[in-house]
Design goal:
Layout: H1 2-15, H2 42-47, H3 50-67, H4 75-91, H5 97-112
């Protein structure tokens, strides 16, 4: 009985480690060495190694905020947004990352009572 429990527990642990295979960010590089950030999906982001996912999330945040002409970083808020983006992407692999950013940032602004002009 104990042996069966151990086998079931081990199987559960292996299957719950994530639905995404971990790949290097360079997997998404085109023939010219670039990554088209507007085409990456949440599955791509969630499927990279954590270090690469963190890097991409920070880059996207800077890009998004730069477009909005927001030039100040609030480190705690940025880290929270990065975490939320990765969590959201793990749950919505079919969405593009740029769509996920909009969802996450909109939710965070709503929670903080921030209104856009």
């Amino acid at each position: 009985m104990m042996k069966k429990f151990a086998i079931v527990a081990a199987a559960a642990a292996l299957t719950s480690t994530g639905a995404f295979a971990q790949v290097e960010l360079k997997t998404f590089v085109d023939k010219n060495g670039g990554i088209d950030v507007q085409t990456l999906t949440c599955a791509h982001l969630a499927g990279t190694y954590q270090e690469d996912a963190d890097f991409l999330a920070v880059w996207y945040s800077g890009w998004y905020n730069g477009l909005a002409k927001h030039h100040i970083i609030y480190v705690d808020r940025a880290k929270d947004a990065e975490h939320r983006l990765i969590v959201y992407c793990k749950e919505h692999g079919d969405k593009k990352v740029i769509q996920a950013i909009d969802v996450v940032f909109t939710q965070m602004r709503k929670e903080m009572g921030i209104k856009l002009k």
